[in-house]
Amino acid sequence: MSTQIAAGSEDQREASSGPAPAAPKRRTLTLRQRIWRERWMYTFIAPGALFFLVFAYVPMLGNIVAFQDFSPFRGFSGSPWVGVDNFVGIFNDPEVLTALRNTLLIAFLQLIFAFPAPIALALLLDSLMSNRVKRMVQTVVYLPHFLSWVIVISVWQQVFGGGGLVANILGDLGVGGFDAMTNADTFKLLVVAQAIWKDVGWGTIIFFAAIAGIPQERHEAAAVDGASAWRRIWHVTLPGLIPVTMLLLILNLGNILTVGFEQLLLQQPMVGADAAQVLDTFVYFRGVLGGEWGIATAAGLLKGIIGTILVLSANKIAKKLGGEGIF
Amino acid sequence: MSAHTASLPKDVQRRKQAGLPPWLNPPPLGLRLIKALVIAVIVVTMLYPLVYVIAMSFASPEQARAGVIFPTAYSLDAYRAIFNGGTVSTGLRNSLWVTVVGTFLSLTASSMLAWGLSRTKQVPGSKAILIMVLATMFFSAGIIPNFLLVKSLGLIDSLWSLIIPGLVSAFNMIVIRNFFMNLPSELIEAARIDGAGEWRIFLQIVIPLSKPVLAVMGLFYAVSYWNTYFNALLYINDSEKWPIQVVLQQYVLAGVQIPGAYVSPDQPPPPGVTLQMAVIVLATVPILLVYPFLQRYFTKGVLTGAIKG
């Protein structure tokens, strides 16, 4: 392709991305020539780029519904504009407050119990001497990650629900009426337990990689200095896990308003909306099923904006504290 | 055994065999027992529910009604009844179609985009598109705008609505792109100098060399298509087009009776609980089948994506 040499000085100025002024004798292609040279690459890019444009960016425009009294029959152009009425409506809606409270409470419980669980499991598995046992346990604990929430909850229903395995065992012992799946009081803990069951194993993968990345010499030096196994975990392994833990915390913070949508949607009929309504299920029930499109979209939009702000600020804070951000 | 290794303490020998550093002290017996116990509890917690559901789906009607802890008498009636009913078979067929077609299209579109965006320095504008794609990992338009889009495209009640809106995952695309960028560049440059076009390089060199990453990403796509539930709930009203996850939700969680689920008209239908268990098993089996073959690639797949995001 070296035959396409830039001809005039005008062309050189156009290709401003190259180091043209510093090396005037360098063969520089004009932008148009570079595009023409790589024309086949655009046939690879076009379908995917079109997909993201249509299915990730065009729907953003649909959020104008949040400022309308929208109905699908009237469409975007036929629906009257209502300004920020929908947003005002959100804050005066007791159901939104319930959903927000449930969302934050579940997110908080997840952060306390479900977030550290993979770290603990990774440390435990890492301390195993036999690689064969380690691999066998990994095979088992990764598995639930691949089951859908419908399957997970169906299985839990058969084990912990009324008439399930545990209820049968307790019934034989003379304790009747056990049903963990419909108890609204303990529902949030149930949600966390399910999340741990499904994803604790999968979560260990990234921590295993971090553990493997800690230089062997550090362990050795600590051991030679007389540090016990516990002290080595505390002073060598755990500090080595801080960067990846920070990274995952940042990502989690962005998702703090998104707690197990399908998981909660599926279980809401069993425990009721007071215990199981979260922001996403509110949007679904109010908007898609209830037909209050405007207020539901406004809630979803607000949620998305807050989530994005949270990730960006968590990333900034992480960088300020001297750690690595994600971007 | 040579004199040298024999002189080492027994536990050091064992660690050497296992490839562990010799300075590592084996934990005391008590701690090892506790660890073994904890691991055993974890493994049982993960596996027993699945084993129980599979076993109960084969339980004889009497034992299923009595609610035993583990069945000892077995029967295939639940499966016979389910396949007589037809609804579950239709669900399985829909899911299979979505999974096969979806995985193929997703892999094709993702690896094409990944290759197109693999030389951002040379291809003008591709950097901007890469950023545009990456940004989608941090926001989403929300449930209702997506629903309105799919509706206006006329995809409601079409199985394509389960494929097209999630065709390319930015994360999976990045993982594939990282793999492509780590391929030996000499090979690709050599082909380019020999005059091979981009498509030829892609189809004859890049794709054959990338089988491991395509296998993992294919698994991820396939699992997500098989597990599709919410999109189907949103976009599919026609019960003939329900994927298996919606069927499962209806008959197991919502407790709707499976229509026509009997072995023969003059015989009482199998108890509801075994029917439910059998539907769970049918929805899970495909995943259990592919899982062991692809398990060894997981770590690689997850990590290449995580390292360079």
Topology, please?
The complex is a heterodimer of chains A (327) and B (309).
Chain A: H1 9-14, H2 31-37, H3 39-61, H4 75-78, H5 85-91, H6 94-114, H7 117-126, H8 131-142, H9 149-160, H10 165-172, H11 187-212, H12 216-224, H13 229-254, H14 261-271, H15 273-276, H16 279-289, H17 293-320
Helix pairs in contact in A: 5-17, 6-11, 7-11, 8-11, 11-13, 12-13, 13-17, 16-17
Chain B: H1 3-7, H2 10-17, H3 29-57, H4 61-66, H5 77-85, H6 87-116, H7 126-135, H8 143-152, H9 170-181, H10 185-193, H11 198-209, H12 211-226, H13 230-235, H14 244-253, H15 272-294, H16 298-307
Describe what is shown at a glance.
The complex is a heterodimer of chains A (327) and B (309). Chain A is mainly alpha-helical and 327 residues long.
Mind explaining what this structure looks like?
The complex is a heterodimer of chains A (327) and B (309). By secondary structure, chain A is mainly alpha-helical. In chain A, 69% of the residues lie in helices and 0% in strands. Chain A folds into two domains: 9-68, no CATH class; 85-320, MetI-like fold. Chain A is built from 17 helices and no strands. In chain A, helix 13 (229-254) runs antiparallel to helix 17 (293-320). Chain B is 66% helix and 0% strand. Chain B is an all-alpha fold and 309 residues long. Chain B contains 16 helices and no strands. Chain B has one domain: MetI-like fold, CATH 1.10.3720. Chain B has helices spanning 3-7, 10-17, 29-57, 61-66, 77-85, 87-116, 126-135, 143-152, 170-181, 185-193, 198-209, 211-226, 230-235, 244-253, 272-294, 298-307.
